[in-house]
Amino acid sequence: MEKLDFLSLKASDLKHLKIVVSKDQIFRDLSDETVILHLGTGLYCGLNEVGAIVWAQIKESMSIQGILDMLLKEYDVDPEQCRLDLLKLLQQLADNDLIEIVNEKDS
Predict the structure, then answer these.
(1) Tens place of pLDDT for every residue, the chain, 107 residues?
(2) What residues contact 71, with CB distance under 8 A and at least 6 apart?
(3) Residue 12 CB neighbour total at 10 angstroms
(4) How far apart are CA 103 and CA 51, in angstroms?
(5) Model-level pTM?
(6) Order of strands, edge to edge, in the sheet holding 33-38?
(7) Fold classification of 13-100 (topology level)
(8) Fewer CB in 10 Å around end: N or C, the chain?
(9) Domain locations in the chain as residue ranges
(10) Nearest to 19, CA basis, from 31, 7, 1, 41
(11) CA dist., res. 43 & res. 37, Å (int)
(12) Half-sphere exposure for 52 (CA within 13 Å, toward CB)
């Protein structure tokens, strides 16, 4: 699995990098949040409403740019702040092996 520093990504990278859920996790959607359990480490992660929306897009193997575009359409938020918040969340999920990265340029 490719390890990545999400905050160092260039804007042009966002459309080529797809995020997929790790095979080593299970999740459950609750009313307005999602909980994820890493089966190997026992790590339990809870996502708030916005995090749950991001997770739903990750389950669809969407590109980072696609997720960002969806958030910007859905919420009245500063685009740069939204990008940074999304990349920080993805970094946390990746650091805990809850997601994997697929570079569509390489496929």
Answers:
(1) 457 899 999 988 899 899 999 999 999 999 889 999 999 999 999 999 999 999 999 999 999 999 999 999 999 999 999 999 999 999 999 999 999 988 877 65
(2) 50, 53, 54, 77, 82, 86
(3) 8
(4) 22
(5) 0.90
(6) 25-30, 33-38, 44-47
(7) Outer Surface Protein A; domain 3 (3.90.930)
(8) C
(9) 13-100
(10) 1
(11) 6
(12) 13
Helix, strand, coil percentages, rounded to 5, for the chain: 45, 25, 30
Please provide residue 79's backbone torsions phi and psi, each rounded to the nearest 5 degrees. Answer: -55, -40
Strand spans (E) along the chain: 17-21, 25-30, 33-38, 44-47, 99-103
Token code pair at residue 31 = 């009313």
Residues in the chain: 107
Six token digits for residue 7: 């905050």
